[in-house]
Design a protein that fits this description.
The protein is of the alpha+beta class. The protein contains six helices and seven strands.
Length: 172
């Protein structure tokens, strides 16, 4: 239990640090999770959201939790698929992949529990939260993405950064 508390404390401190670096400037419009992604170096995620026509969905009012893969994570996926960008990936696959990382609720790092099964917007697909050896999410085949930053707050939800793109149900 002590180890879990230390992990959660570490994630919270990392999240607080990351959150302050993404915080909106006083006097500027509050930002949605899509705006935050676009403004803060999630270039590939922004391009993929655009290609899959999901920008307006994720700019909506619903509370969202997005596990956002880094640009390097998408580059590794493209390499695995033998493509150079999102325009070469089937739109249905892009949409399924992106929605696999979105929950229709706001879940801060303090809400995540070891072994928690989260149902995603990708046709009810699920992943499991793991906190026993660092923080990560794992699909049913054992593919795991590490959570590297947490609690980046937008007006319509929260972002947690992950280091790998998992294709739903593929093990990759």
């Amino acid at each position: 239990m002590r180890k879990l508390n230390l992990i959660l404390l570490s994630l919270t401190l990392i999240g607080a640090f990351v959150f302050t670096s993404y915080e909106k400037d006083p006097g500027k419009e509050p930002k949605t999770i899509v705006d935050i992604a676009i403004d803060n170096g999630f270039n590939v995620l922004a391009a993929v959201l655009t290609e899959a026509n999901l920008v307006s969905t994720l700019q909506g009012d619903a509370p969202f939790t997005v596990f956002a893969p880094t640009d390097a994570a998408f580059d590794a996926l493209y390499s695995d698929l033998g493509v150079t960008g999102p325009e070469q990936v089937d739109d249905a696959l892009l949409e399924a992949v992106l929605l696999y990382y979105v929950l229709d609720l706001t879940a801060f790092s303090s809400d995540l529990e070891d072994g928690l099964t989260a149902t995603t917007l990708s046709s009810g697909a699920t992943f499991t939260v793991n906190l026993s050896d660092g923080a990560s999410i794992t699909d049913g085949t054992g593919a795991t993405a590490n959570i590297t930053s947490v609690n980046i707050l937008g007006t319509n939800g929260v972002i947690h950064v992950i280091d790998m793109v998992i294709l739903p149900g593929s093990g990759k």
